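Run log, item B.
One chain of 141 residues. Sequence copied directly from the ordering sheet:
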Amino acid sequence: MSTKTPAAAAPALPGAEQAEIAAVPARMVAAWAAHDADAFADLFTQDGTLILPGVYKKGRDDIREFMSTAYAGPYQGTTVTGSPIDLKPLADGAVALLTMGGVLAAGATELSDEDAIRASWTLVKREGRWQLAVYQNCPRD
């Protein structure tokens, strides 16, 4: 993961802070693997926003409800993968994290090209931890 900081932007983050931020995608992967809508929603700020193709959910409660329904429906048996590819400090306590990954179909061990995504994560430090203010993804290709 690189940290590219334009002039007049927030200073580069210390390594420990970068590690905390990079751990957020791993927490999402774990929440998804357990099909735990509560853990997934708890990655977000109280008023966080989830944007997926065809989906716009605002607030932990709406995100929790959406994921609970999705885990019982179209996401049943799926897993997700994602790795940080860039980190951009925005201001004190705010960063943009870019990842690449996707949803693996039930039983799949490799990500298909059609399921690969790129994602933008706007993270803010609240309550002593990095939380998602906005998560948005789109097809990789």
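Observations after the first pass:
- The beta strands are 44-52, 55-58, 79-91, 94-104, 116-126, 129-139.
- The chain is about 25% helix and 40% strand.
Flagged for discussion on Thursday.
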